[in-house]
């Protein structure tokens, strides 16, 4: 088998293999799916933030043109309790009773022949409510507070004593507004029943988990459910849970006995598929005059719905980041009358990094130590929690290379000392430590007599390049051209795969492909083990290499034959092999893998008008092995744009009186446009990580992390204003 | 959405006649406002939509010191018209800052004047209290989160913003609106065209139902005048103004001989700042004069917590645009 030590295809910046399908409109997104007898559903959402429904007047809607069903809690068929999932308990089921827990909660689903008829009928539904005072605001004394909700709070050393004796202390509070993922593709579900078999096309990032959930709540075997998600228009974490609208679409299809399509409207995206919750963090740093950290105490309070869970540790970033002997973390969640939050790219870690890296910047000014130098003095040469050596860690190189590319040495340390006309100029930076999440994954790989190969797994490509890197990796391992490898994913009937989430899929799927490719090669060798006509007879996988579809002896490459020869002679259409990746908690005695990054921002600020423009942004990432230089760069630049949005623009504004989201449209909720985004310089450093079979360390989220701190730190350098509340809008800079 | 009848108008009198006799009818031009309000937001539901897109109301005519702009002329066409760049450059600036190219190619000048507010409380059926949508129901924006809202001409009845960029230099120039009704034609100065909401926010302008804006007369600046439009917003492009200002100045030997100033992003209607103009004219063109004009322009602001910052931001916006037009700053 070809070793990954000197790859020729893997890592190359080849174009996305699914690109032509997407730019020609041929890729079938969930909202494109049609059936001959398809009908359309529209959700009706509550217009109060808390209370109960006392009457539902559905007569007019039911009588409206084309209407097939108006389903509410009063007439909905019962659902079985939802299962425990890989991310904790399922969300509470919809339509259980008349209670309303947040503004925009689904209270009815209307099914009609056409989408327009469904919309018109939905507007005819009248609901009487008894409204209660909504519990809103992180500091609301009426709110239930969950302390240490994941039993993951951590303590090493004696942080309280170390803070008390520290020579310099930073003790500040950082607040980040709620944000909404807003993938451009509106989430869509198409559900179709044939008897007790359910097929669902959905904007999900995790078909296998969705299959499990749907099978459980409809009380049918998992084998009777198929979830398809070969393409979706972005996810950013919004597709990591089975949200109520998915279940309701399947429910509606069962009620009307026809396939049903539901496409969320943009305002409904704000209340239906999770969001990054509002957070308030208290960060205490204690240091010596020479810059060495002696204590970090990191607390966070984040918002949660009235019922339901959200696994979103914020303080998790702090323990592995710096060599500091005394660390404590505390997470809290506050139950409010808001849509239950969820996972938005880099959940928790993005927020936590903002507080940690802002506080370090504050410390650097107190100590008058250069921000990079301060981080180098606290560099964690070993994993600071376990004390074990890192499997790989090029963070120092990230700082060095980034500083060079950015021109950090031109930074004049005094605040407000750099300007261009009436624009103040600021330089800021942040470091990032991002520990890899490695879920198990399975895959099946096959080679056919016609020369094609197939990689099949229930994984999804949420626009990130899964199709492409899977094809590249398989081509590399099997000695094929990328064009010969067909990747089939996004189907729960295929081998079990984890979510596209937590930055883990590429590494886990890659590990499974490595295993499967080895198994497949062994299957070929086993086929010819007793074949007198094969030059490979009796050889082992360790003794051969594959190139151009041909297996040959390493010692003498003239001894060998092609996959085709073997299949032809043995009258086989194909040979296939499964593979899996099931990482343990890490190799004994080694910590990691973790990805690392350094982020550098140059901001220009017009102090009179409060205008903030990002002039340059440099990112250096140690992501281990880069599987495709182009899609990897795209991951980082896309995530950086999200980080810019989080820092400058994005805020899901929740009316503190009613719980209504006040800006649930793209006209009111601002995301960056091209004019907000400078040229983004991205460079990768580091080497393949030995704890990951393909050497990768996860790139899906690290690009969002550190952007906010780098920009906010640059704003301080330019203006002397320390902005601890995101987003940094004009009013905060006046 | 509810069904509606689509009618393609054959001529101007016919279009006016159809809409005038049907209280549920609405004109359709570029559609960039109407279709959003009908299809996406569902806050208006005309039973009949009269498409005026094929009427001969498109094109620009140059006269000695003004332009006559047909109501169906697109924003892009007006922005590209050479005389606009030469003799009223701040009109061009406002058009280019006002919308993306795609929208400028669809949106018409008449439609821009008549665009409805972006107030999300007005545009969301889940909000019960909106005096503009449901007269007498109250104003949820006054008590809820509000940022993209008006501070001038606003009251507890309504703080909905008139978000047009184009209208800001147009009111500064004393543009005139030509109106066709069933009884004939009339003209109204743009500064008199809009109606302050006071206690009837549902009334936005002087048009009778069925009257059609056919042309807009845009006076040109005198030779030697300089003008500018400054739009301040969080996002670098494709956002409505937090504050904006259109200014035209004629400066003779350091003294302001003529001043025109209007504001956007702050008013329930496009806001002509006549008190500020009175302060500017005859005074030396310097920062002190400009700041005094800015202070005079923003008086009696009605703010809510989310819009309070606009008072100072608007003043700085005014001072900056005046400095820029006067050549004191880049």
What can you see in these coordinates?
The complex is a heterodimer of chains A (734) and B (330). Chain A is globular and about 80 Å long. Helices cover 24% and strands 26% of the residues of chain A. In chain A, strand 21 (441-448) and strand 22 form a beta hairpin. Chain B is α+β, with helices and mostly antiparallel strands. Chain B is built from 13 helices and twelve strands. Helix content of chain B is 30%, strand content 21%. In chain B, helix 2 links the parallel strand 2 (25-28) and strand 3 (48-51). In chain B, helix 11 packs antiparallel against helix 12 (287-297) and helix 12 (287-297) packs across helix 13. Chain B is globular and about 60 Å long. Classes of the chains: A alpha+beta (734), B alpha+beta (330). The interface between A and B is large, with 43 and 38 residues.
Highlighted features:
heterodimer; A: 734 residues; alpha+beta; 7-stranded mixed sheet; 16 helices; B: 330 residues; 5-stranded antiparallel sheet; 4-stranded antiparallel sheet; globular
In short:
Chain A is α+β, with helices and mostly antiparallel strands. Chain A is globular. With 330 residues, chain B is α+β, with helices and mostly antiparallel strands.
- Total DSSP E strands of chain B: 12
Low-confidence stretches of chain B: none
What is the succession of H and E elements of chain B?
Answer: EHEHEEEHHHHHHHEEHEEEEEHHH
The total count of helices of chain B amounts to 13
| Overall spatial form of chain B | globular
Quote the beta fraction of chain A.
25-35%
The description of the largest β-sheet of chain A is: 7 strands, mixed
Proportion of residues in extended strands of chain B: 15-25%
Instruction: Walk across the major sheet of chain B and give the strand order.
Output: 4-5-8-6-7
What sort of overall outline of chain A do the alpha carbons produce when their principal axes are compared? globular
Specify the structural class of chain B.
alpha+beta
Class per helix and strand makeup of chain A: alpha+beta
User: Gap between N and C termini of chain B, in Å?
Assistant: 50 Å
The largest sheet of chain B is:
5 strands, antiparallel
């Amino acid at each position: 088998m070809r070793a990954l030590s000197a790859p020729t295809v893997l890592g190359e910046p080849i174009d996305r293999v699914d690109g032509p399908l997407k730019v020609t409109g041929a890729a079938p997104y969930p909202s494109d799916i049609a059936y001959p007898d398809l009908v359309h559903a529209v959700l009706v959402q509550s217009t109060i933030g808390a209370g109960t429904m006392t009457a539902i007047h559905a007569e007019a809607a039911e009588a409206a043109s084309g209407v097939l069903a108006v389903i509410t809690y009063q007439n909905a068929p019962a659902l079985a309790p939802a299962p425990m999932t890989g991310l904790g308990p399922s969300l509470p089921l919809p339509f259980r009773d008349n209670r309303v827990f947040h503004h925009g909660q689904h209270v009815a689903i209307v099914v009609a022949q056409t989408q327009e008829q469904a919309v018109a009928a939905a507007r005819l539904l009248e609901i009487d409510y008894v409204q209660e005072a909504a519990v809103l605001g992180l500091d609301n004394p009426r709110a239930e507070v969950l302390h240490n909700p994941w039993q993951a709070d951590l303590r090493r050393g004696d942080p309280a004593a170390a803070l008390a004796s520290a020579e310099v202390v930073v003790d500040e509070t950082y607040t980040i507004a709620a944000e909404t993922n807003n993938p451009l593709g509106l989430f869509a579900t198409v559900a179709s029943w044939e008897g007790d078999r359910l097929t669902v096309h959905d904007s999900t990032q995790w078909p296998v988990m969705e299959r499990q959930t749907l099978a459980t709540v409809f009380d049918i075997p998992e084998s009777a459910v198929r979830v398809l998600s070969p393409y979706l228009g972005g996810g950013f974490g919004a597709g990591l849970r089975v949200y109520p609208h998915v279940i309701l679409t399947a429910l509606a299809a069962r009620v009307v006995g026809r396939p049903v399509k539901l496409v969320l409207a943009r305002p409904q995206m704000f209340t239906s598929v999770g969001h990054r919750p509002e957070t308030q963090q208290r960060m205490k740093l204690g240091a010596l005059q020479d810059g060495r950290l002696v204590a970090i105490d990191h607390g966070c309070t984040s918002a949660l719905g009235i019922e339901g869970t959200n696994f979103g540790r914020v303080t998790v970033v702090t323990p592995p980041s710096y060599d500091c002997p005394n660390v404590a973390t505390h997470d809290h969640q506050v139950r409010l009358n808001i849509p239950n939050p969820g996972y938005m790219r880099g959940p928790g870690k993005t927020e936590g990094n903002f507080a940690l890296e802002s506080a370090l910047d504050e410390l650097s000014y107190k100590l008058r130590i250069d921000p990079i130098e301060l981080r180098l003095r606290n560099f964690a040469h070993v994993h600071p929690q376990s004390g074990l050596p890192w499997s790989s860690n090029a963070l120092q190189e990230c700082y060095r290379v980034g500083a060079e590319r950015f021109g950090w040495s031109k930074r004049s340390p005094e605040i407000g000392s750099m300007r261009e006309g009436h624009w103040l100029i600021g330089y800021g930076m942040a470091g990032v430590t991002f520990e890899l999440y490695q879920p198990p994954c399975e895959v099946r790989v096959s080679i056919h007599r016609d020369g094609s190969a197939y990689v099949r797994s229930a994984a999804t490509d949420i626009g990130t390049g899964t199709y492409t890197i899977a094809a590249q990796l398989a081509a590399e391992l099997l000695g094929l051209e990328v064009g010969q490898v067909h990747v089939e994913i996004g189907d729960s009937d295929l081998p079990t795969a984890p979510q596209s989430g937590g930055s883990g899929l590429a590494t886990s799927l890659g590990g499974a492909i490595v295993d499967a490719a080895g198994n497949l090669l062994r299957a070929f060798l086993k086929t010819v083990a007793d074949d007198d006509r094969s030059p490979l007879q009796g050889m082992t996988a360790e003794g051969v290499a594959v190139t151009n579809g041909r297996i040959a002896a390493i010692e003498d490459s003239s001894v060998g034959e092609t996959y085709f020869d073997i299949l032809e002679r043995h009258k086989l259409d194909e040979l296939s092999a499964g593979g899996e990746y099931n990482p343990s908690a890490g190799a004994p005695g080694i910590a990691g893998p973790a990805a690392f990054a350094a982020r550098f921002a140059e901001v220009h600020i017009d102090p009179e008008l409060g205008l903030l423009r990002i002039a340059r942004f440099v990112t250096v990432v140690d992501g281990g092995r880069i599987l495709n230089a182009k899609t990897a760069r795209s991951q980082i630049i896309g995530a950086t744009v999200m980080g810019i949005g989080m820092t400058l623009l994005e805020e899901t504004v929740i009316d503190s009186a009613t719980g209504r989201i006040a800006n649930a449209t793209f006209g009111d909720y601002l995301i960056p446009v091209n004019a907000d985004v400078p040229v983004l310089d991205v460079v990768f450093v580091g080497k393949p990580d030995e704890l990951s079979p393909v050497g990768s360390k996860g790139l899906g989220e690290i690009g969002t992390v550190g952007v906010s701190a780098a920009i906010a730190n640059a704003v301080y350098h330019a203006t002397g204003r320390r902005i601890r509340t995101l987003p940094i809008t004009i009013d905060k800079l006046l | 959405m509810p069904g509606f009848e689509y009618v393609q108008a054959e001529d101007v009198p016919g279009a006016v006649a159809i809409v005038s006799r049907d209280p549920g009818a609405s004109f359709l031009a570029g559609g960039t406002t109407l279709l959003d309000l009908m299809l996406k937001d569902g806050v208006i539901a005309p039973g009949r939509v009269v498409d005026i897109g094929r009427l001969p109301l498109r094109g620009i005519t140059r006269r000695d010191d003004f332009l006559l702009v047909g109501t169906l002329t697109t924003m892009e066409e007006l922005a590209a018209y050479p005389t606009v760049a030469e003799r009223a450059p701040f009109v061009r600036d406002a058009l280019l800052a006002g919308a993306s190219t795609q929208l400028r190619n669809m949106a018409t000048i008449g439609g821009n004047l008549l665009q409805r507010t972006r107030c999300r409380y007005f545009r969301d059926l889940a909000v019960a209290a909106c005096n503009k949508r449901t007269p007498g129901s109250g104003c949820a924006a006054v008590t809820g989160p509000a940022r993209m809202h008006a501070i001038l001409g606003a009251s507890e009845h309504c703080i909905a913003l008139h978000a047009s960029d184009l209208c800001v230099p147009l009111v500064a120039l004393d543009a005139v609106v030509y109106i066709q009704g069933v009884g004939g034609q009339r003209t109204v100065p743009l500064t008199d065209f809009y109606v302050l909401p006071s206690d009837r926010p549902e009334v936005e302008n002087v048009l009778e139902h069925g009257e059609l804006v056919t042309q807009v007369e845009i006076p040109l600046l005198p030779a030697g005048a300089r003008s500018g439009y400054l739009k301040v917003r969080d996002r670098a492009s494709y956002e409505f103004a937090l504050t904006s200002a259109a200014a035209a100045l004629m400066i003779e030997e350091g003294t302001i001989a003529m001043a025109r100033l209007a504001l956007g992003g702050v008013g329930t209607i496009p806001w002509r700042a006549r008190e500020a103009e009175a302060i500017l004219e005859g005074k030396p063109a310097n920062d002190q004069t400009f700041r005094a004009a800015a202070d005079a322009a923003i008086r009696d602001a009605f703010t809510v917590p989310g819009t309070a910052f606009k008072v100072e931001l608007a003043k700085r916006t005014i001072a900056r645009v005046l400095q820029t037009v006067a050549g004191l700053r880049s």
